[in-house]
């Protein structure tokens, strides 16, 4: 049967989901159901006094409200209004936000340093927020990453916050180590970093205890953007002649910018950097040298700033405003923009943002540039730019797919190393020598980081940037900024909660089918949450790879213990491009002709989720693995 005939076809998934959105379990709307069960539980227990039952219920409601406020970042005034409304029905509830959250002045030590104030919250206190995850990892040395960057707080003033953030390797939860507040960047790196260095040395040499188990803490790497790396390493900025952090090449001044055209310059070493041998590159000896961490190899080149906000943005600006032989016509830009906007309905829930027009490229965020280079650009640029430019773009996309893939990055790392050398060389031919600025040149050094630390998402600044938004929303007024951060920490607002989601969870029960023999006694569901991805019965979230074949999920079944999905597989699967390598080698396919036969796929056979984008017509699609969230 075809998709349109099956009753739950690919084209009908979205509308079907909407028509059954009201088929929710009754307890979704029954706010008092859980409290009623709680009261019933205590009425059958040894508790005899009704006042004790009521007191426990109120305490439970207060606790749930405080957790909700901390998790959803509700404003103080909104909480006060809500509590006044609830007080008529629950007189024992607190009347104010401060009482509910038990907000007390958080005792933090604030030091006056050059340029402003600094408060140290502690590495160990941050590590303890992910204590359970550390114990599950089963390691005796806790490795953690460090990040720092500037954060403007208010539009009407020059106040800045420079936090030092940490994240334990193997977890997804950044934490606050320390923070500087002032009207400018910290002028003195020694004063800014000293409390962090002191504690880091103690945790590395002496260690600490968690639930009776002794651990040591070791810095894995520093993840910062280029200006912040130059600040903590005390080196020349990336715009300087000796700005490259990985090789000794001297840049050239071309058309108003410093470029790095050489492809095989001598590499810098950690040992020589520690001795201060690179006098033309190092401004001063970095205080971080005390930590015995390689400040060349362990200060990674973050792809969020380097590739997404750097190289990809630069390429698009050349297409829009560059030399005439590169610049796209208004008609081609309009077609590309129209294609991007049309793909919005095909973007899965794992994406924070939907594609936007090229006319808004000045406002694009890093996630949108990442989306373009990995997914939508492959479709939108096809036949709209010159073949050489498109092939050049595809080379960058292939390299990023490989370097972001946990399974491909090590196998193809040497190949990507060679590919990026060719890509940088060709970029100077296509766009001119002035295109090879610091970001473009630094692509040559990305494979070194992958060899040392694994795929690029393991050393990405995206989690830290997300946490920065939490910090900014925690500061409500320009006075006593560090004290405000301390209060938010005491309330639990700056602690990223560990995921409580089960390994596998099905949601949105329905009865619309299709039903397959062998699963008649199972319940049907519209959503499946498992292994870090979400499958839904709609056009954007239903494509998966199951048993090395690409298919579309038509239904989800569960008997309470096992989960099985019903899949319509594509009968025709071929490569989408053949240069610089066949797209099928990295999991990208051009698919068409859905089978009319249902296949059963157990959860354990789902290899990954796919992004399914229409290609030229509704009869062909490009299937791209959801690589950035694996």
Structural overview:
By secondary structure, the chain is α+β, with helices and mostly antiparallel strands. The protein folds into 4 domains: 33-101; 104-225 and 479-496, no CATH class; 303-459, no CATH class; 501-625, SH3 type barrels, CATH 2.30.30. The protein has 19 helices and 20 strands. Strands 1, 2, 3, 4, 5, 6, 7, 8 and 11 form a 9-stranded mixed sheet that branches. The chain has a 6-stranded antiparallel β-barrel with strand order 15-16-17-18-20-19. Strands 9-10 form a two-stranded antiparallel ribbon. A hairpin with a 1-residue loop joins strand 19 and strand 20 (617-625). Helix 11 crosses helix 13, helix 12 packs across helix 13 and helix 14 runs antiparallel to helix 15.
